[in-house]
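Please review the protein record below. Let me know how this chain folds according to its tokens.
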Amino acid sequence: MISVQELTGMEGNVISLQEIFSFEQTTIDAENKVRGIYRFHGVKPRFIDKFTATGIKVSNSLFDPNNVMKI
């Protein structure tokens, strides 16, 4: 599994992360392409507010945990 995580802080020597997306490989097809599922974990990353302030629009539905994308 591969995941995208956001660094949220530190407590002493412990780094705190929150998982935003993960990808789970399910197979490799006949053309050697990786196939799998992207899962959204319902966490809105902190950087989205900075995106919004600069005019970059990101739909909140992207972070819906019921959102699953198969490739």
